[in-house]
Amino acid sequence: xxxxxxxxxxxxxxxxTPALKAKLDEFAEKGNLLEDEGQYDEAIExxxxxxxxxxxxxxxxxxxxxxxxxxxDVYVKKGMYAQAHQCFDQARGNLSGxxxxxxxIMLRLGECCLxxxxxxxxxxxxxxxxxxxGKEIFEPDExxxxxxxxxxxxxxxxxDHIE
Length: 163
Known about the structure:
mainly alpha; Serine Threonine Protein Phosphatase 5, Tetratricopeptide repeat
């Protein structure tokens, strides 16, 4: 499946058909509803079921990022930062091109790195999120959750000229 250059030959990737897309959407929605009800473990199970439907190698599909980010976000809510870091790091490395350029992925990776004691990478990822979205990405969401101030203060303490 690899070409002479060592990159995946995208023409040989299995297509996400409309029927598969519909199933993925069902699992995504089911997980979202369960998360809204505070049923975090069940939400993770729903998203993992959807993730398992994505053909391999999964790192070439942007749909993989959706599920990994959703699972990782619940792990953050549960304070399970090592598990969340695994999800967001995998999403970051997604070869569909969406992971590294996603400010939410960068923010969560930075938060997880700080929480697990990896300050060097915390600065890198938080700075990437800041550069993409500005200070707004650290502000509370519509529910008033996400205390991004802690992470913004950390970033300001480690990087000059951030206001």
